[in-house]
């Protein structure tokens, strides 16, 4: 996890601000009481736990009509064993932790039945899905315990790896930390016709990467420090601490979501080999981008292909975050690989600047729970911006340095996919030239995006550090 300042500097700043009376104090970090990844690993090894990477189930579509999909999601409380001999109180959809993968085709009519089996209210937001406001699952669409919400929408976007998670005011961060999150795949003619790895769970693997801290008794330690929101000292992948995956000598596609509350990930392979990025948040890039590392801020996704055919049987290759191993691949068997890494994946139609009818500026300010956008905190009863349906706009987003604390913010807009025009006036990296719904704004940076508002309704835009969002770094846009 990337921390930008050392704790003592931050504590001094916080103490000063607290004295001035602005801040509700957050828990100080107490590293001594937390379980380290090495400790957890040793306990699990001793207990001979099978620590292979969990693969979430594909959610059954109960409607026989191929063009109409009916899915049931049940948010519920559960118990999960991350550390042998202990049980962690968790939440999941249709299970104990995380949720199944919802898989739909472009053009499908999708009906989802969300039965809230929690003993608290929740919402389900389809992050990255282009829906109208009523089906978006934002904070104003509470599902009370024991009740059902039945959103229904038609998929009108290109193939992509999207996701879903709760968005209720005041509990988004803790519900996500407890385990409420799942993937939402869209397929289309392009994704079906490309000869890339696409056998779910075989050579097309979902990876939900998150960080968590554990107390000695196995319970989650939800720690928010003032600057960064809730970070953890262990990285978990699909709900397992440092799991492994046995692979054949073939190409493997990984669909990665940064599902953490507040931590950025900087992913690379321990052998420093290249991999190919083929998709960003909202779908395929035009061409695969060869790279050695992948940066993902909270909420962002990417798809990559790793070619394991070049390694000898018996080789272990690890996916690492900065310097820490988070998932290891054991190259076990020969494979008969007929997939390829094509030169061209799709055509991304660039939104022309000349189509924009308005420019808006959003300044992300402050830190801790003093965050705001353009000087205002979120208010459910206030519409901050109004747009006409079908309009295209340029949004300039800046991250303002706060009290000597340089902090980046992942900025997300509901209900749309946008394109990045520039970062501080410069062209974005190749991996950011496709569709995006979340963009990381580095400290003191100005990022320009171009976005077309196709769907009507009220939508959120916010920082995807969930504790920042909860503290008011969020606004509402009405598309009418
Ligand atoms: Cu990932 Cu407002 O959400
Ligand atoms: Cu969203
Ligand atoms: Cu933020």
Shape: globular
Task: Return Rg in Å.
Answer: 21 Å
> CATH superfamily name of the domain at 353-479?
Cupredoxins -  blue copper proteins
Q: Report the portion of residues in β strands.
A: 35-45%
Spans of at least 5 consecutive residues with low confidence: 1-31
User: Based on DSSP secondary structure assignment, what is the total number of beta strands?
Assistant: 34
Question: What hetero molecules are in the model?
Answer: CU-O-CU linkage, copper (II) ion
How many angstroms does the end-to-end distance come to? 40 Å
The CATH class designation of the domain at 353-479 is: Mainly Beta
By CATH, the architecture of the domain at 353-479 is named Sandwich
What would you call the structural class? mainly beta
Average per-residue pLDDT, rounded, comes to 92
Q: Walk across the major sheet and give the strand order.
A: 15-14-11-17-22-19-20
How much helix is in the residues? under 10%
Largest sheet: 7 strands, mixed
- The number of distinct helices, counting runs of at least 4 residues, comes to 5
CATH topology of the domain at 353-479: Immunoglobulin-like
Task: Give structural notes.
The protein has 480 residues and is mostly beta strands. The chain has a domain at 353-479: Immunoglobulin-like (Sandwich), CATH 2.60.40.420. The protein has five helices and 34 strands. The strands form eight sheets. A seven-stranded mixed beta sheet has the order 15-14-11-17-22-19-20. The longest helix has 13 residues, at 7-19. The protein starts with 6 loop residues before the first helix and ends with a strand. 48% of the residues are buried. Residues 1-31 have low confidence and may be disordered. Bound molecules: CU-O-CU linkage and copper (II) ion (2 copies).
């Amino acid at each position: 996890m990337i921390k930008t300042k050392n704790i003592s500097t931050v504590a001094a700043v916080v103490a000063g601000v607290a004295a001035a009376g602005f801040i509700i104090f957050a828990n100080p970090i107490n590293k001594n009481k937390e379980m380290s990844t090495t400790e957890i690993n040793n306990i699990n090894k001793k207990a001979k736990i099978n620590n292979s990477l969990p693969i979430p189930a594909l959610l059954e579509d109960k409607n026989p009509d191929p063009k109409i999909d009916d899915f049931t999601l049940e948010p519920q409380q559960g118990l999960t064993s991350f550390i042998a001999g202990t049980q962690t109180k968790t939440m999941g959809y249709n299970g104990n932790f995380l949720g199944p993968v919802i898989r739909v085709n472009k053009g499908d009519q999708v009906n989802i039945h969300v039965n809230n089996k929690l003993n608290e209210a929740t919402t389900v937001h389809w992050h990255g899905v282009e829906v109208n406001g009523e089906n978006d699952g934002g904070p104003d669409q509470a599902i009370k315990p024991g009740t059902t919400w039945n959103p229904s929408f038609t998929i009108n976007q290109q193939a992509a790896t999207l996701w879903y998670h709760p968005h209720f005011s005041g509990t988004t961060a803790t519900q996500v930390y407890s385990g409420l999150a799942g993937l939402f795949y869209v397929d289309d003619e392009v994704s079906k016709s490309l000869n890339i790895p696409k056998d779910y769970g075989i050579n097309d693997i979902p990876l939900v990467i998150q960080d968590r801290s554990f107390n000695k008794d196995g319970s989650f330690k939800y720690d928010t420090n003032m600057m960064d929101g809730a970070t953890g000292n262990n990285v978990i992948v699909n709900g397992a601490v440092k799991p492994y995956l046995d692979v054949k000598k073939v190409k493997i596609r990984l669909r990665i979501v940064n599902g953490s509350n507040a931590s950025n990930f900087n992913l690379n392979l321990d052998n420093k080999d290249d991999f190919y990025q083929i998709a960003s948040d909202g779908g395929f890039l035009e061409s695969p981008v060869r790279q050695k590392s992948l940066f993902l801020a909270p909420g962002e996704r990417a798809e990559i292909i790793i070619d394991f055919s070049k390694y000898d049987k018996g080789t272990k290759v690890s996916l690492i975050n900065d310097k820490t191993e988070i998932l290891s691949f054991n190259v076990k068997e020969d494979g008969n690989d007929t997939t390829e890494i094509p030169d061209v994946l799709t055509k991304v139609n660039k939104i022309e600047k000349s189509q924009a009818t308005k420019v808006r500026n959003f300044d992300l300010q402050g830190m801790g729970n003093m965050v705001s956008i353009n000087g205002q905190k979120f208010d459910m009863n206030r519409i901050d911006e109004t747009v006409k349906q079908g309009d295209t706009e340029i949004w300039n987003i800046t991250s303002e340095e706060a009290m000597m604390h340089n902090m980046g913010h992942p900025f997300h807009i509901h209900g749309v996919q946008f394109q990045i025009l520039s970062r501080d006036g410069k062209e974005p990296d190749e991996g950011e030239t496709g569709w995006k719904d979340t963009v990381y704004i580095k400290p003191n940076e100005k990022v320009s995006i171009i976005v077309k508002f196709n769907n009507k309704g009220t939508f959120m835009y916010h920082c995807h550090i969930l504790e920042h969002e909860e503290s008011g770094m969020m606004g509402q846009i009405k598309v009418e």
